Amino acid sequence: xxxxxxxxxxxxxxxxxxxxxxxxxxxxxxxxxxxxxxxxxxxxxxxxxxxxxxxxxxxxxxxxxxxxxxxxxxxxxxxxxxxxxxxxxxxxxxxxxxxxxxxxxxxxxxxxxxxxxxxxxxxxxxxxxxxxxxxxxxxxxxxxxxxx
Amino acid sequence: xxxxxxxxxxxxxxxxxxxxxxxxxxxxxxxxxxxxxxxxxxxxxxxxxxxxxxxxxxxxxxxxxxxxxxxxxxxxxxxxxxxxxxxxxxxxxxxxxxxxxxxxxxxxxxxxxxxxxxxxxxxxxxxxxxxxxxxxxx
Lengths: 148, 138
Hints:
The complex is a heterodimer of chains A (148) and B (138). Chain A has 148 residues and is α+β, with helices and mostly antiparallel strands. Chain A has helices at 26-36, 41-44, 46-50, 61-75, and strands spanning 16-18, 22-23, 81-91, 100-112, 118-128, 134-145.
């Protein structure tokens, strides 16, 4: 069977991807609160949030970060990813219930690692909403296997 | 009675430990259903999941919850893979605070550790935290 994954050697600097959109729902926020244990009023108290500048509950920043991680796998053929190395990230605008977010990503750096079977791919990533406003932005480092 | 920890109350260099939580396959399945982030080649859990759970653990310390108005930034490094059945907790240290007009920026360094006390992940969260309202502090 053909291995559909893309290995470190095959990923080129400058490659760009854009994911499908994903609407963030109230259910997403409720599930994420239960999963993470983050019941902060920003995400769970509709009445309190009416009095704030947001006017309503907003999605957890890490929920949207996690969703973009999934959107990445729908934006391009799967990488032979071994895991995350790390990230540097800014939360620029709130995501509200009903907003539709999508991911834009670009390969900006490739480097070898100490272990010869893997390398690190750094991507610039931008999460946009349905109005093309940037809601989150940053760089992620992925550890990707080299072709055996 | 204080119901929140405001910017003025945050103490730089104070270290707080959270309770622990065992990461189960149910957590992984919920996470994958929510995000559609597929499993990587390894059998470990998705790296972002412990980070998400670290935020929740942060609300379970003895102090009243920090009056967070917004999550501003994150730097994060994965040190070691966590596996289903491992039990994680976090150690949190405020490394800086910078006042602004009605609020301030707090940088909270959180280290995620496993049941052996080994570091799994390290993160620096930047939060915008409300100042105490004037009438409340009078």
